[in-house]
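thread: overnight batch results

M.L. [08:02]
morning all. the overnight job finished for the chain we discussed friday. pasting input first so we're all looking at the same thing
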Amino acid sequence: MSKPGALDLANSVGGTIAKEDVNNAVEKYEKYHCYYGGDEKERKANYADMVLDVGCGIGGPLREIARFSMTSITGLNNNEYQITRGKELNRKAGLDKTCDYVKADFMKMPFPDNSFDAAYALEATCHAPDAVGCYEEIHRVLKPGQCFAAFEWCMTDSFDPNNEEHLNIKKEIELGNGLTDVRTRAQCLEALKQVGFELMALEYVGLAPKGSQRVQAFLEKAADGLFAGGRKGIFTANYIFLVRKPQLDGSSRSTTE
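M.L. [08:03]
and the structure it wrote out:
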């Protein structure tokens, strides 16, 4: 995001973030992506060879990550139009030889066990009808010792299922964004643990900009729900987690929260 864009975002949600603070944050982000890891040979050595993007859409993040890391990424999507569009954009970006798409349901992935060196999902697995089944498939196709990172939509610990206002906000988000149920943070964590992932890092950002997901007129209601949920701290579109599939020998790392 550009500095003007980041500043506009900060202002649009009625925040009190100073212009200098926004610009400093963007500058740190840009420096990381421009300089971290050294030259291409060193950067390539630091990243995995086979990465899975779960629910990739048309592949915007896929292309950004592939350009930066020189990684081969497979995008998984069940929408034929988005895949066609993504392939064309990959071609224009010069990534059609290293990155591709597979049309499939992420609840039943057409990949052998232990296929990928890493996997990630950006605001996609919230659409899974069953979190356990979805995370289980991701766990299955990851190689032992490798990681899965995600931005997950979920209700925060401040959500009260007995609060009528909270329930109405949750329903608005679900209706406008085609979600059967927005899971809670605790439900997401329990599902990850249940399939065998080790929790390594967790973070959530209680912020949802007004107008989010306004693609069609009916989504305006969803935007109101997103904004209200973010304001009240009961919903986040950016619950970030990093988990690891254990090594075959059972070795593990400490959990950070």
